[in-house]
# Entry
Amino acid sequence: MRRSPELNLTISRPESGDIPLYLQVVEAIEKAIRIGQIGIGQRVPAERTLSHLLRVSRTTVTAAYRELEARGLLRGFVGRGTLVVASPADASGEALSWSQRSSSMARQANYLSYVHHQPDVVPFELGWQDSSLYPTESLNALLRELTQTASSDLYAPPSPAGDRSLQQAIVQWLEARDIRVNADNVLITAGAQQGLNILARAFLSPGDVVLTERPTFMGALMAFRWAGAEVVGVPSDEAGLQSDALEDMLAWHRPKLIYVMPTFQNPTGAILSRERRQQVLDIAARYRVPIIESDLYGDIYFDQKPPSPLKAMDKLDAVIYQGSFSKIAAPSLRVGWLVVPKGALPALLAAKAFEDLHTSTLTQRLVARFLESRHLDRHLATMRAECRRRRDHLAALLHEHVPTLQFRPPAGGYYLWARLPPPLTTDDLLPAAAVRGVAIRGGSSHMPERGGEDYIRLCFASVDTRQITKGVQRLAAAVGDSWDRLQTNAQRRSPRVSVI
Ligand SMILES: Cc1ncc(COP(=O)(O)O)c(C=O)c1O
# Structure
């Protein structure tokens, strides 16, 4: 086997020599184009480089490239090298092939897409509450009332910043969380994901660095990377982001932004301690780096109320505070918000208007009514009790059936983050879990850099207690299967000793 790391080509030398080597190179490159590993417009390695990487003669690579040119897939350009100009499907006149045309970011973004499960799969890997936790009746009643009494202004375009009734309702809501702001500083977004996307558009240029906790939310990784930024992870532990490590990394990387989730972090569930909250603010202020504080889960606490958000302690207007109604009401509303210091508003409003002009007034007014009528406060009490029940059930069953998993039951939020017993990794466990009918999230999708294969994230908000029982049984079986496979492989690899 010969492998070119750049192109991810794997070529085997024929045993009998009946397929010429150059044709194998042709087939490997053709396949890489067909499955989208190299896109149209991308450069293939120089002949000399590829011959070195594949350890074949330069003549072999030259012959392969000539053949691919003859097939209409490659073309040499003076000063630019040899580029992919068509896919095998285009060259043969088949239906236009789109996969080769997607950008490199779009190819990486696949994992953010929705997973449609077979009905029997236990969906621990999701990031949503299940539908029994939506406040369906209250929202229906409020929606009826809203549309019965609405005047035509419901259908007129609002400002990109949002509908005034919702901005004001959020100001009241934040007051109870020790955050005092003006309605002009509340920017309504189409969910928190759009908040991240417009923050990236407004403040990041290619090559900028963003510091995040390690691990962090994968949608944030995508938003920052899509803007061309490099994301660097700051070590975190059970008390959240490590502030001394943050200081070193600020000095070294000089980042443009810091992105943190101080309360019930996704995926670890950690709470940044009160002491560290102040340290993080002080350190960031010393280096004059703004903080994006994400607080989507802070209201879903199981015991005590968590410490106040960083924004409540922010004297320098250095924190942009993010929230959303997706996790505390319903995800399809697509309503979130950013609390934005005055100086940061123009860039963010421009980015918001560029993305979608404004968020739908209908859903904004519905959410405003949901807040004003105190339905949300009542709904939160239900959410807390139910998520707590599920967390307890999950933790108890994991202790009993998968005792080798290491975890701390989170004090709030949606997720349980667990370490796999070495040498088990998600490479072994995820496929085994899929076969057993349980979907889990591998830790590496949360990592700014490499690593995370020794962790899994289980969402307990997406599954009721009956499904949790089924899911843990399946997970235990999958862990057993993976151990058996590891042991069989180790035995195969161990040298045989013959006793004479
Ligand atoms: C930390 C964090 N930010 C943003 C989002 C996306 O939220 P929304 O549904 O409001 O776009 C999620 C969803 O999982 C999240 O966990």
